[in-house]
Amino acid sequence: MSTTPQEILRIEQDIVLTLKNIYDPEIPVNIYDLGLVYEIDVEPGGVVNIRMTLTAPNCPMADQLVEDVNNNVAKVKGVSEVNVVLTFDPPWDRNMISEEALLELGML
Q1: pLDDT band (50, 70, 90) for residue 2
Q2: pLDDT at 75 over 90
């Protein structure tokens, strides 16, 4: 099944909304606004590749966060498969946090 460019855009937007409902358990901000999501690639056919990081390589919640992303993104209409790749290049830092999240955290 082929996916039109308009459908791909809608799927990407729905994925972003979904990711904004997944929170890092140690920081009261969603993983998207924290800057943990580096790339969302929706291929024709609904295969989604997400490249993301963690706030620290030794994050004790790594498996849970990856599982949450996989499970929640898989529920997005039009998604047929989800592949989450963890990377630490570039390493995450405070500069990756959105302005909205900085305000929420009282850091702006």
Answers
A1: low
A2: yes
Q: What is the helix (H) or strand (E) element at residue 86, kind and residue range?
A: strand 81-86
Q: Which long-range contacts (CB under 8 A, 24 or more apart) does 1-9 make?
A: 1/45, 1/46, 2/44, 2/45, 3/42, 3/43, 3/44, 3/45, 3/46, 3/78, 7/78, 8/42, 8/44
3-state secondary structure (DSSP) of residue 82: strand
Residue whose C-alpha is closest to residue 85's, from 16, 23, 38: 38
How much is the pLDDT for 107? Answer: 83
pLDDT of 1 over the 70 cut:
no
Question: What domains are defined for the chain?
Answer: 5-102 (3.30.300.130)
Q: Cβ(54)–Cβ(91) under 8 Å?
A: no
